[in-house]
Design a protein that fits this description.
By secondary structure, the protein is mainly alpha-helical. The chain is 76% helix and 0% strand. Belongs to the binding-protein-dependent transport system permease family. CysTW subfamily.
Length: 276
């Protein structure tokens, strides 16, 4: 009896902890759309009324549109480069054995544990030392660097789930290595590739520190939002923009999770948890 009572008490404590944790984590996100549709310019309760004025201001802001265009260009380019390079790294790490494999993969995955401020300052010093002008291209370089480990993590799971017999069967039927990779392997890992693209896109779109150091005079969406926080009258529009970004991130992560689970189901593996 004492054991059961103690177990129930622990269960209630764990549920209370989980609820408080979720409230702390998601309450600010829930407040975004509430204040984005609030007609008052002060972010506080009680609410004044319903309005879509801040979304109209957001759509009519030329600087914001430029920053959004830059961020989309950077995010798409970084996602494509990181995923393409990640395909090579994941394929090599899961299919082949070679000297220095562990060290090489450790260096590639290092941005996962290094503080972004260190990466940003290092890239800034190197690029300026080489005489390279800061621009959107330098931000793409930095974002590709930090997105690659995430892409490799997703792609390594996809490649490791493949049955080597399928590739060997393609060789027996006369296919070249490139033909087997293109016709057999790529279609099987395509859900993982799409997931890596979407996750890299989301990470790049939301990234601030590297963009702040490497963008030069070109605004990106995160740096633009940061610059507008100094002006109280711009806060409601930023709340509206944050609402749109949260919705976009949720949609992209949901799509990535769908393709991840589709890839696991296609490979006949057990789902051990994912992004959502």
């Amino acid at each position: 009896m004492n054991g059961q009572t103690e177990g129930r008490a622990q269960g209630r404590g764990l549920r209370a902890y989980a609820i408080l944790y979720l409230l702390f984590l998601y309450a600010p996100i829930v407040l975004l759309p509430i204040f984005a549709f609030n007609s008052g310019t002060i972010i506080a309760f009680p609410l004044k009324g319903f309005t879509t004025e801040w979304f109209a201001q957001m759509a009519g802001n030329a600087t914001l549109r430029r920053a959004l265009g830059n961020s989309l260009t950077i995010a798409v380019s970084s996602a494509v480069f990181a995923t393409c390079l990640g395909i090579f790294a994941a394929r090599a790490s899961t299919r082949f054995r070679f000297p220095g494999k562990g060290a090489a993969m450790g260096l590639i995955m290092l941005p996962l544990v290094l503080p972004e401020i260190i990466i940003s300052v290092s890239l800034l010093v190197v690029l300026l030392g080489m005489g390279i002008k800061l621009s959107i291209l330098t931000v793409i370089l930095g974002h590709t660097l930090i997105c690659m480990p995430y892409a490799i993590t997703v792609l390594s799971t996809a490649f490791s789930s493949l049955d080597p017999a399928l590739e060997e069967a393609a060789y027996d039927l006369g296919e070249t290595k490139w033909g087997a990779f293109r016709l057999v392997i790529l279609p099987l890992v395509m859900p993982g590739i799409i997931s890596a693209l979407l996750i890299s896109f989301t990470i790049s779109l939301d990234e601030f520190i590297i963009a702040f150091f490497l963008a030069g005079n070109e605004p990106t969406l995160p740096t633009y939002i940061f610059s507008q926080l100094r002006f109280p009258k711009a806060i409601p529009m930023i709340m509206a923009l944050g609402t749109v970004l949260v919705a976009l991130s949720i949609v992209l992560l949901a799509i990535a999770e769908y393709f991840r689970r589709r890839g696991i189901a296609r490979a006949g593996l057990k789902d051990t948890g994912g992004f959502l």
